[in-house]
Amino acid sequence: MTRKVLIISAFLFLTTSAFAFAGQPIPEHKEVGPIIYFDKTTHTFPPVFEGEVLSHAFTVSNRGKVNLDLKKVTHS
User: Quick one: average pLDDT of 22-48?
Assistant: First the structure.
């Protein structure tokens, strides 16, 4: 086969495949385990004086169907 025939054949195959699968429903994603969700993942403190105590609370939730166990939390 020539290069031109191969290119046309590949194009026709891909086009036909796209139309064949266009009407198929997308399979539903099954949630197998916990899904951790943070409403906010960063926080920047304003400038402070040395010795001031700062704190901030992050909201963490589980959007999965299995219990979410937090074993260790660290800061950066």
Answer: 81
